[in-house]
Amino acid sequence: MPQDSYAPPDPQAAGDPGALGETAAEDLVHGICFKTGPPRILGAELEWLVLDAERPGTTLPPDRLTAAHDAARALPLHSRLTVEPGGQLELSSAPAPSLSGCVDGLQADLAAVRAALRSRGLVLHGTGRDPRRPLRRLLHSPRYDAMESYFDRTGTAGRAMMCSSASVQVCVDAGYEEPGPLGYGRRWRLAHLLGAVFVAAFANSPAHEGPYAGWRCSRQGIWNDIDARRALAPPADAEPRAGWTRHALDTEVMCVRSEGEGPWPVPHGMTFRDWLRAAGATGAGGPVPDGLRPPTAADLEYHLTTLFPPVRPRGHLEFRMIDAQPGEDGWLVPVAVVHALFDDPEAAESAYRAAKALADTHGPRPSPRNPLWQSAARHGLADPELRTAAATCFRAATEALPRLGASRHVQDVVGAFTERFPLRGRCPADDAYPQLTGTGARS
User: 174 and 34 in contact (C-beta within 8 Å)?
Assistant: First the structure.
């Protein structure tokens, strides 16, 4: 859940004794990806752009942006505050046993951060993609230097993801081991079908020009393009644990952590399974550089933090496809809706019935590179299938929120969003750029 489990392992842990074998690596991923039990814990991560209150279209000088981050870090917050490579500010909630527990802590911390920034003439802004150019990376570290080098091999999408994207990430428990409405297997499948609904309903990164011109969720286009495999889900028909384990080990290693101040090596074309199989060999050749040290359990744990599928299994399920939302309370809506549709049995059943109608359009290709997800990113809820599913799901969520103990304020915010967007076949991007409204359905 947010706050503690998202922190990557300490680089110094790379000195774990002994090489990690392939079977042990499979067992490790298999054991940590889905931790089953009754769904009860909720968490959220909120990413924000930091803008000048009077001139929001201007790029902030690095020293002013860094001073704002330092002021926010000095606050006594309940949430974990971090900074993304482009200077985006992120708040990660502590794991909470209820919706109110998650929301109340984030609301209090956001109020404190906003006040600190306001005194410096700055504001937090919720949008999925920063339109300002040029892209500038504020943070420099071995991790981010290696990440940039890795992504630059396949184009500009990696830098755009690092420096200009922002999201609302919601985390729910994996679910029960046993089959059923709240079992982890069904929740995993449901997450990838409803993920397209969430992309469409919360699309808030419209683009006028460039490779994603006309898209309501250009942020999703960026994630689609960063890597041939790193941002993909496992095959839809795979058993969740086995599918994710194969996917993780057969994805390229982004970088190899090393001690000292030098840059981290960025191998070319080496999967983690390649690294495991070459461990202990001399003159390995192929994608494994000669002399590369054997991988450890800590290296594998770190590798998992460099995988960015739309739904990431970290013991719990981490929903990564939702754009940052506009307004002071817009972020409440995806947190409450995801919680309701996955943790309230009645709402989960309604969501499952709606999702089943989307299965044929989703097809066998993994998310986000299938027709359902592509249409969600391009057209939002102008797609009639997604609009129908969204209307059903948002109605079910609004009915579930009182059962989940949601405050009147949360209920009102979700209700207003539902009336304004899903029930009218619209998304926040349609407010930002009205000319995109009505551009048609799936192509």
Answer: yes
